[in-house]
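Run log // design_07
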């Protein structure tokens, strides 16, 4: 659940992925909205998939250095980012 003064993430349409990208952490796919922390090539980002009405919609954050992506991931899980 988002906290009152949470950070708003910039969600964008997916663009060409890095060559060797891999999800390293994720939330449960049983929910309508699933998040994945993806890393590759020294960069990281968060992928969001909303699964409503039979059509999944995917958006991604910009790429960050891995440490920044991991910190943002923890903020997302704790409700400090959305």
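design_07 sequence
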């Amino acid at each position: 659940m988002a906290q009152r003064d949470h950070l708003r993430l910039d969600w964008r349409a997916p663009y060409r992925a890095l060559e060797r990208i891999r999800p390293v952490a994720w939330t449960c796919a049983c929910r309508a909205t699933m998040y994945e922390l993806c890393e590759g090539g020294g960069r990281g980002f968060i992928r969001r998939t909303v699964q409503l009405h039979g059509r999944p919609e995917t958006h991604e954050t910009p790429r960050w250095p891995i440490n920044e992506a991991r910190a943002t991931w923890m903020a997302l899980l704790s409700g400090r980012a959305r």
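The chain has a mean pLDDT of 89.
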